[in-house]
Fold this protein.
Amino acid sequence: MISRFAPSTTGEAHPGTLLAALLVWLDARARGGRAILRLEDLDVARVRAAWSAQLVEACAWLGLAWDEVVVQSDRRAAHEAALDALAAAGRLYPCVCSRAARAGGRRAPDGSWAYDNTCRARPLPAGGWRAVDDALRVRLDSDRIALVDEGGLDLSQTPARELGDPIVRRRDHVIAYQLAVVVDDRDAQVTDVVRGRDIAPSTATQVMLQRLLGFPTPRYRHHFLLLEPPRDGAAAASPPAEPASPPTKLAKLHGSIPFSQLRARHDGPALCGILAHAAGLLDAPRPCRPDELVATFAWSRVPTTDRVARWTGAGLVITDDAA
Protein backbone atom coordinates (compact mmCIF):
# COMPACT_ATOMS: atom_id res chain seq x y z
CA MET A 1 0.00 0.00 0.00
CA ILE A 2 1.47 3.33 -1.09
CA SER A 3 -0.27 6.64 -0.49
CA ARG A 4 0.68 10.25 -1.05
CA PHE A 5 -0.01 13.71 0.26
CA ALA A 6 0.26 16.13 -2.66
CA PRO A 7 -0.21 19.78 -1.64
CA SER A 8 0.27 22.68 -4.03
CA THR A 9 2.94 25.13 -2.92
CA THR A 10 0.93 28.25 -3.70
CA GLY A 11 0.80 29.70 -0.20
CA GLU A 12 1.34 28.96 3.46
CA ALA A 13 0.02 25.71 4.84
CA HIS A 14 -3.25 26.11 6.77
CA PRO A 15 -5.31 23.82 9.06
CA GLY A 16 -6.96 22.10 6.08
CA THR A 17 -3.56 21.35 4.58
CA LEU A 18 -2.35 19.79 7.80
CA LEU A 19 -5.58 17.86 8.35
CA ALA A 20 -5.20 16.29 4.90
CA ALA A 21 -1.56 15.45 5.62
CA LEU A 22 -2.49 13.84 8.95
CA LEU A 23 -5.25 11.69 7.43
CA VAL A 24 -3.04 10.47 4.58
CA TRP A 25 -0.22 9.63 6.98
CA LEU A 26 -2.45 7.86 9.52
CA ASP A 27 -4.20 5.79 6.84
CA ALA A 28 -0.88 4.62 5.45
CA ARG A 29 0.71 3.87 8.81
CA ALA A 30 -2.38 2.07 10.15
CA ARG A 31 -2.24 -0.25 7.13
CA GLY A 32 1.50 -0.81 7.21
CA GLY A 33 2.01 1.18 4.02
CA ARG A 34 4.29 3.90 2.68
CA ALA A 35 3.43 7.60 2.72
CA ILE A 36 4.94 9.99 0.17
CA LEU A 37 4.98 13.79 0.28
CA ARG A 38 4.73 15.26 -3.23
CA LEU A 39 5.22 19.01 -3.53
CA GLU A 40 3.09 20.15 -6.48
CA ASP A 41 5.00 23.21 -7.64
CA LEU A 42 4.26 23.40 -11.37
CA ASP A 43 2.22 26.62 -11.29
CA VAL A 44 5.21 28.91 -11.77
CA ALA A 45 3.07 32.06 -11.53
CA ARG A 46 1.95 31.21 -7.98
CA VAL A 47 4.47 28.92 -6.27
CA ARG A 48 7.41 30.00 -4.14
CA ALA A 49 10.36 27.96 -2.96
CA ALA A 50 9.77 29.29 0.56
CA TRP A 51 6.31 27.77 0.64
CA SER A 52 7.65 24.38 -0.46
CA ALA A 53 10.20 24.51 2.34
CA GLN A 54 7.51 25.58 4.80
CA LEU A 55 5.25 22.64 3.88
CA VAL A 56 8.06 20.22 4.65
CA GLU A 57 8.75 22.05 7.91
CA ALA A 58 5.07 22.17 8.89
CA CYS A 59 4.64 18.43 8.43
CA ALA A 60 7.73 17.71 10.52
CA TRP A 61 6.54 20.17 13.19
CA LEU A 62 3.21 18.30 13.34
CA GLY A 63 5.07 15.00 13.76
CA LEU A 64 4.74 13.51 10.28
CA ALA A 65 7.75 11.68 8.82
CA TRP A 66 7.44 10.77 5.11
CA ASP A 67 9.01 7.80 3.41
CA GLU A 68 9.91 9.92 0.39
CA VAL A 69 9.64 13.55 -0.75
CA VAL A 70 8.99 14.18 -4.45
CA VAL A 71 9.26 17.59 -6.11
CA GLN A 72 6.87 17.67 -9.04
CA SER A 73 8.83 20.19 -11.09
CA ASP A 74 11.68 17.68 -11.28
CA ARG A 75 9.46 15.33 -13.27
CA ARG A 76 9.11 17.25 -16.54
CA ALA A 77 10.62 14.44 -18.62
CA ALA A 78 7.99 11.96 -17.40
CA HIS A 79 5.18 14.42 -18.09
CA GLU A 80 6.45 15.08 -21.61
CA ALA A 81 6.72 11.33 -22.26
CA ALA A 82 3.01 11.06 -21.45
CA LEU A 83 2.27 13.89 -23.90
CA ASP A 84 4.27 12.01 -26.54
CA ALA A 85 2.18 8.89 -25.91
CA LEU A 86 -1.09 10.81 -26.17
CA ALA A 87 0.08 12.52 -29.36
CA ALA A 88 1.08 9.18 -30.89
CA ALA A 89 -2.42 7.90 -30.14
CA GLY A 90 -3.95 10.91 -31.92
CA ARG A 91 -5.41 12.29 -28.72
CA LEU A 92 -3.83 15.76 -28.44
CA TYR A 93 -5.14 18.93 -30.06
CA PRO A 94 -4.45 22.67 -29.72
CA CYS A 95 -7.15 24.78 -28.08
CA VAL A 96 -7.58 28.53 -28.51
CA CYS A 97 -10.68 28.84 -26.31
CA SER A 98 -10.44 31.11 -23.28
CA ARG A 99 -12.16 30.72 -19.93
CA ALA A 100 -14.20 33.81 -20.70
CA ALA A 101 -15.51 32.14 -23.86
CA ARG A 102 -17.00 29.33 -21.74
CA ALA A 103 -18.73 31.64 -19.28
CA GLY A 104 -22.51 31.30 -19.26
CA GLY A 105 -22.49 27.80 -20.73
CA ARG A 106 -23.00 24.49 -18.96
CA ARG A 107 -21.94 24.05 -15.37
CA ALA A 108 -19.48 21.23 -14.73
CA PRO A 109 -19.64 19.03 -11.60
CA ASP A 110 -16.81 21.03 -10.02
CA GLY A 111 -18.73 24.31 -10.41
CA SER A 112 -16.66 25.63 -13.33
CA TRP A 113 -17.92 26.13 -16.86
CA ALA A 114 -17.82 22.91 -18.86
CA TYR A 115 -15.80 22.85 -22.07
CA ASP A 116 -17.78 21.89 -25.20
CA ASN A 117 -14.79 20.30 -26.98
CA THR A 118 -14.94 23.14 -29.49
CA CYS A 119 -11.42 22.73 -30.88
CA ARG A 120 -11.40 18.94 -31.29
CA ALA A 121 -11.05 19.16 -35.07
CA ARG A 122 -7.83 21.19 -34.86
CA PRO A 123 -4.80 19.03 -35.71
CA LEU A 124 -1.33 19.29 -34.27
CA PRO A 125 1.12 21.09 -36.58
CA ALA A 126 3.87 19.30 -38.47
CA GLY A 127 6.26 19.97 -35.61
CA GLY A 128 4.02 18.11 -33.15
CA TRP A 129 2.79 19.26 -29.76
CA ARG A 130 6.09 20.96 -28.89
CA ALA A 131 5.46 23.42 -31.75
CA VAL A 132 2.11 24.49 -30.26
CA ASP A 133 1.89 27.75 -28.31
CA ASP A 134 -1.82 27.34 -27.50
CA ALA A 135 -3.11 25.14 -24.72
CA LEU A 136 -3.18 21.40 -25.40
CA ARG A 137 -6.21 19.26 -24.68
CA VAL A 138 -6.67 15.50 -24.84
CA ARG A 139 -9.65 14.03 -26.69
CA LEU A 140 -11.45 11.70 -24.30
CA ASP A 141 -13.65 8.78 -25.20
CA SER A 142 -17.35 9.29 -24.57
CA ASP A 143 -17.47 6.35 -22.13
CA ARG A 144 -19.09 6.68 -18.73
CA ILE A 145 -16.75 6.05 -15.81
CA ALA A 146 -18.59 4.06 -13.12
CA LEU A 147 -16.71 4.52 -9.84
CA VAL A 148 -17.51 4.67 -6.13
CA ASP A 149 -14.73 5.63 -3.73
CA GLU A 150 -13.74 3.78 -0.56
CA GLY A 151 -16.01 6.00 1.53
CA GLY A 152 -19.06 5.31 -0.64
CA LEU A 153 -18.95 8.60 -2.58
CA ASP A 154 -20.28 8.12 -6.12
CA LEU A 155 -17.69 9.51 -8.54
CA SER A 156 -19.38 8.26 -11.71
CA GLN A 157 -19.28 10.64 -14.68
CA THR A 158 -19.04 10.87 -18.41
CA PRO A 159 -16.12 13.31 -18.22
CA ALA A 160 -15.95 14.09 -21.95
CA ARG A 161 -19.46 15.52 -21.70
CA GLU A 162 -19.82 16.71 -18.10
CA LEU A 163 -16.48 18.55 -17.86
CA GLY A 164 -15.15 18.35 -21.40
CA ASP A 165 -11.73 17.38 -22.71
CA PRO A 166 -9.12 18.43 -20.14
CA ILE A 167 -6.18 20.74 -20.69
CA VAL A 168 -2.97 18.75 -20.25
CA ARG A 169 -0.51 21.53 -21.05
CA ARG A 170 -1.38 25.15 -20.45
CA ARG A 171 -0.83 28.10 -22.77
CA ASP A 172 2.22 29.08 -20.70
CA HIS A 173 3.63 25.57 -21.36
CA VAL A 174 3.09 24.44 -17.76
CA ILE A 175 1.97 20.80 -17.49
CA ALA A 176 -1.61 20.84 -16.23
CA TYR A 177 -2.74 19.23 -12.98
CA GLN A 178 -4.87 16.48 -14.53
CA LEU A 179 -1.97 14.97 -16.46
CA ALA A 180 0.76 15.55 -13.90
CA VAL A 181 -1.13 13.87 -11.07
CA VAL A 182 -1.89 10.80 -13.18
CA VAL A 183 1.72 10.38 -14.31
CA ASP A 184 3.18 11.04 -10.87
CA ASP A 185 0.83 8.59 -9.14
CA ARG A 186 1.72 5.86 -11.65
CA ASP A 187 5.47 6.39 -11.39
CA ALA A 188 5.33 6.35 -7.57
CA GLN A 189 3.23 3.15 -7.75
CA VAL A 190 0.53 4.82 -5.67
CA THR A 191 -2.19 2.34 -4.74
CA ASP A 192 -4.36 4.60 -2.59
CA VAL A 193 -5.28 8.27 -3.09
CA VAL A 194 -6.68 10.03 0.00
CA ARG A 195 -7.63 13.68 -0.53
CA GLY A 196 -10.28 16.29 0.19
CA ARG A 197 -13.62 15.90 -1.46
CA ASP A 198 -13.24 19.19 -3.32
CA ILE A 199 -11.06 17.18 -5.74
CA ALA A 200 -13.67 14.43 -6.19
CA PRO A 201 -15.15 15.87 -9.44
CA SER A 202 -11.73 15.46 -11.11
CA THR A 203 -11.47 11.75 -10.39
CA ALA A 204 -13.36 10.41 -13.41
CA THR A 205 -11.25 12.51 -15.78
CA GLN A 206 -8.09 11.17 -14.14
CA VAL A 207 -9.36 7.60 -14.45
CA MET A 208 -10.04 8.20 -18.15
CA LEU A 209 -6.48 9.50 -18.63
CA GLN A 210 -5.13 6.46 -16.79
CA ARG A 211 -6.97 4.22 -19.23
CA LEU A 212 -5.73 6.13 -22.27
CA LEU A 213 -2.14 5.81 -21.03
CA GLY A 214 -2.45 2.20 -19.90
CA PHE A 215 -1.94 3.06 -16.22
CA PRO A 216 -3.55 1.24 -13.27
CA THR A 217 -6.27 2.99 -11.28
CA PRO A 218 -5.63 3.40 -7.55
CA ARG A 219 -8.26 3.22 -4.85
CA TYR A 220 -9.73 6.62 -3.97
CA ARG A 221 -11.10 8.12 -0.77
CA HIS A 222 -12.29 11.73 -0.33
CA HIS A 223 -12.51 13.16 3.18
CA PHE A 224 -14.32 16.10 4.75
CA LEU A 225 -13.04 19.68 4.45
CA LEU A 226 -12.32 22.51 6.83
CA LEU A 227 -14.33 25.59 5.87
CA GLU A 228 -14.03 29.27 6.54
CA PRO A 229 -16.81 30.67 8.78
CA PRO A 230 -19.58 32.55 6.98
CA ARG A 231 -19.12 36.29 6.79
CA ASP A 232 -21.92 38.08 8.58
CA GLY A 233 -23.81 40.53 6.43
CA ALA A 234 -21.87 39.66 3.30
CA ALA A 235 -23.89 40.78 0.33
CA ALA A 236 -24.44 38.36 -2.51
CA ALA A 237 -22.11 39.22 -5.34
CA SER A 238 -22.94 39.01 -9.01
CA PRO A 239 -21.91 35.68 -10.56
CA PRO A 240 -18.30 35.95 -11.75
CA ALA A 241 -17.39 35.41 -15.37
CA GLU A 242 -15.37 32.38 -14.28
CA PRO A 243 -16.60 30.52 -11.18
CA ALA A 244 -13.92 29.88 -8.59
CA SER A 245 -13.37 27.02 -6.18
CA PRO A 246 -15.96 26.75 -3.38
CA PRO A 247 -15.61 30.10 -1.58
CA THR A 248 -15.91 28.69 1.94
CA LYS A 249 -13.04 26.17 1.70
CA LEU A 250 -9.84 27.09 3.50
CA ALA A 251 -7.35 27.97 0.78
CA LYS A 252 -3.66 28.84 0.68
CA LEU A 253 -4.32 31.50 -1.95
CA HIS A 254 -6.69 33.24 0.49
CA GLY A 255 -4.14 33.13 3.30
CA SER A 256 -6.59 31.14 5.44
CA ILE A 257 -5.20 30.83 9.02
CA PRO A 258 -1.62 30.49 7.79
CA PHE A 259 0.96 28.19 9.35
CA SER A 260 3.00 31.10 10.68
CA GLN A 261 -0.04 32.15 12.73
CA LEU A 262 -0.77 28.61 13.89
CA ARG A 263 2.81 28.01 15.02
CA ALA A 264 2.90 31.28 16.94
CA ARG A 265 -0.10 30.19 19.04
CA HIS A 266 0.17 26.36 19.21
CA ASP A 267 2.92 23.77 19.34
CA GLY A 268 2.83 20.67 17.15
CA PRO A 269 1.22 18.27 19.66
CA ALA A 270 -1.49 20.81 20.53
CA LEU A 271 -2.45 21.34 16.91
CA CYS A 272 -2.32 17.60 16.25
CA GLY A 273 -4.85 17.14 19.06
CA ILE A 274 -7.14 19.83 17.66
CA LEU A 275 -7.08 18.24 14.20
CA ALA A 276 -7.48 14.72 15.57
CA HIS A 277 -10.54 15.77 17.58
CA ALA A 278 -12.06 17.41 14.49
CA ALA A 279 -11.46 14.14 12.63
CA GLY A 280 -13.26 12.10 15.29
CA LEU A 281 -10.07 10.43 16.49
CA LEU A 282 -10.10 11.97 20.00
CA ASP A 283 -13.03 12.60 22.35
CA ALA A 284 -11.65 16.04 23.17
CA PRO A 285 -8.75 18.15 21.94
CA ARG A 286 -5.56 17.28 23.84
CA PRO A 287 -1.89 17.37 22.93
CA CYS A 288 -0.76 14.23 21.13
CA ARG A 289 1.61 12.96 18.46
CA PRO A 290 0.46 11.37 15.18
CA ASP A 291 2.08 8.05 16.06
CA GLU A 292 -0.14 7.84 19.16
CA LEU A 293 -3.21 7.77 16.89
CA VAL A 294 -2.13 4.98 14.55
CA ALA A 295 -3.31 1.99 16.62
CA THR A 296 -6.92 3.21 16.87
CA PHE A 297 -7.22 4.95 13.50
CA ALA A 298 -10.29 3.90 11.48
CA TRP A 299 -12.19 5.71 8.75
CA SER A 300 -15.44 4.75 10.49
CA ARG A 301 -14.53 7.29 13.17
CA VAL A 302 -13.90 10.13 10.72
CA PRO A 303 -16.93 12.36 10.03
CA THR A 304 -18.22 12.83 6.52
CA THR A 305 -19.61 16.34 7.03
CA ASP A 306 -17.41 19.39 6.71
CA ARG A 307 -16.18 21.34 9.74
CA VAL A 308 -15.70 25.08 10.28
CA ALA A 309 -12.29 26.43 11.36
CA ARG A 310 -12.21 29.70 13.33
CA TRP A 311 -9.37 31.77 14.72
CA THR A 312 -10.23 32.92 18.23
CA GLY A 313 -8.51 34.37 21.27
CA ALA A 314 -7.71 30.80 22.26
CA GLY A 315 -6.26 29.99 18.86
CA LEU A 316 -7.71 27.52 16.37
CA VAL A 317 -11.19 26.17 17.11
CA ILE A 318 -12.91 23.66 14.82
CA THR A 319 -16.65 23.05 15.10
CA ASP A 320 -19.12 20.83 13.32
CA ASP A 321 -21.46 23.62 12.20
CA ALA A 322 -21.45 27.26 11.17
CA ALA A 323 -22.91 28.52 14.47
About this structure: The domain at 76-184 is CATH 3.40.50.620 (Rossmann fold). The longest helix spans residues 15-30. Residues 311 and 317 are 6 Å apart (CA to CA). The chain has two domains: 2-66+225-319, 76-184.
